[in-house]
Design goal:
It is a single chain. With 108 residues, the protein is α+β, with helices and mostly antiparallel strands. The protein has a single domain, classed as Beta-grasp domain (Ubiquitin-like (UB roll)). The chain has 3 helices and 5 strands. A 5-stranded mixed β-sheet has the order 2-1-5-3-4, with no helix packed on it. Strand 1 and strand 2 form a beta hairpin. The longest helix has 9 residues. The radius of gyration is 13 Å and the shape is globular. Bound molecules: FE2/S2 (inorganic) cluster. The site of FE2/S2 (inorganic) cluster has 12 residues, from loops.
C-alpha cells in the first residue's frame, strides 16, 4: 500500500493507483478537465514530500510547453507509491466549475 497525505490527513492507497483517482476517491473535487491525458494541467499538484522521481514523456512535454517544469506535477500522470504528501491546486470548489472533467481510468 501507498500512503497519501492531503492537508494533514492520511489515506492508504493501492500502489499503482493513478494519483488523480486516489485524490478524488478521498472526496476531494480535483479537476481533470482533459480526462487524464496530460493536456490541460488542471490536475496539477505540488509535493511537500514523496514526489515521484520518474516523469513520463507526456507529462514532461506538457510541463515544458507551459514552462512549468519544477513548479508542479500533473497528478494524472503520477502513480501512488511510498508516502506522498501533496497539495491539490485546482478543485471544482476553488474554481467554481461545475464539472471536474471526464471520468478517469484507474491507471495511466
Ligand atoms: S487531467 Fe488534464 S493534464 Fe491531467
Amino acid at each position: 500500500m501507498a500512503t497519501l497525505i492531503i492537508d494533514g490527513n492520511s489515506y492508504e492507497i493501492a500502489e499503482g493507483t493513478r494519483l488523480t483517482t486516489a485524490i478524488e476517491e478521498q472526496g476531494i473535487d480535483i479537476l481533470h478537465r482533459c480526462g487524464g491525458n496530460a493536456k490541460c494541467t488542471t490536475c496539477k499538484v505540488t509535493f511537500n514530500s514523496g514526489e515521484p522521481e520518474a516523469m513520463n514523456d507526456a507529462e514532461k512535454a506538457k510541463l515544458e510547453d507551459k514552462e512549468a517544469l519544477g513548479d508542479y506535477r500533473l497528478s494524472c500522470q503520477c502513480i501512488c507509491e511510498g508516502t506522498m504528501d501533496v497539495n491539490v491546486l485546482m478543485t471544482m470548489t476553488s474554481t467554481g466549475l461545475d464539472d471536474a472533467g471526464p471520468e478517469l481510468s484507474k491507471t495511466i
